[in-house]
User: Fold this.
Amino acid sequence: MTIQNKTARTVLTFLTDTCFFIIGSLFYAGGITSFAVPNHVAQSGAAGLAIAINYLVPQISVGLGNFLVNVPLFVLAWFFIGKRFVGRT
Assistant:
């Protein structure tokens, strides 16, 4: 395998992974928005914590709450796990 083919395969793998990450995120966000929030069902993890925060403080939206919960987790992951993990997450 030449360097050019290996680079093209790496770029193709990156783009394929990114497309699947985006599609999966859209399905997950759609499920939370259309099922969990209207039916008052708190998920587990960061999304569930964001939903619980929204119930306690209605001025904070679920999206903002999810962002605020995830930022410290990403910062910790950057230092303890690595930037590649954070970039793919």
